[in-house]
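Support request, priority: normal
Reporter: lab tech (M.K.)
Component: structure prediction queue

Hi team, I submitted a job for UDP-glucose 6-dehydrogenase from Ceratopteris richardii yesterday, and the status page still shows it as pending. I've pasted the exact input below so you can check whether something in the sequence is tripping the parser. The sequence length should be 250 residues. Please let me know if I need to resubmit or if it's stuck on your end.
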Amino acid sequence: MSALCEATGADVSEVAYAVGKDSRIGPKFLNASVGFGGSCFQKDILNLVYICECNGLTEVANYWKQVVQINDYQKSRFVKRVVSSMFNTVSGKKIAILGFAFKKDTGDTRETAAIDVCHGLLGDNAKISIYDPQVTADQIMRDLAMNKFDWDHPQHLQPMSPTAAKKVDVVWDAYEATKNAHGVCILTEWDEFKKLDYKKVYDGMQKPAFIFDGRNVINVEELRKIGFIVYSVGKPLDPWVKDLPAAPPS
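Reply from support: The job had stalled in the queue. We restarted it manually and it finished. Here are the results:
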């Protein structure tokens, strides 16, 4: 829905509000984002797929597979929007990552969308500076260095790669993360990100200054008044990115 809203100029929050007014659905769990994470949801869906396939219910299994595939698409789409907005490359550019946990008020990073987003940006040779108030630097580096789904292995059996460390910096202050950055990606809905002094953030960044809100926690219009070029998932697009493709040309 967020992709469709962006394409048509609609506001995904208004769509979610309207859908949530139906008492059979309710307003909970309708917030658009960069993608869901956590140790349970995807695992439970894939278990359901397996059970359906074992019972010969191929069409039903394929239906549930689409939930996981759309989630992967959403994360990929976010990365492509970042790259295409920033002149079709983030190579050599500093990107601040605000939030690494899969949701606020936890240090849990299992299946967090931030891992795939960071991998996508690193794949285009971005320099990443990460801040999360609860996730340790060791955990972040371990998550970025291991293969997908290896997080549930015993720690001594988790394969490690030194490549991520070369282009990743973990800091303990949001303003330090955004200092001299070309772009900012908000990937966890921490309350403190709603209260940052974004004028201070803007003044410390390279220009033009981009901000990509994957959790819809910021006031888009207020940040545009400051001078940011803003992308917020499922929200009407900034004039800067409105006519750009969601992905750079291949």
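The chain is about 40% helix and 10% strand. The mean pLDDT is 88. Let us know if anything else looks off. Ticket resolved.
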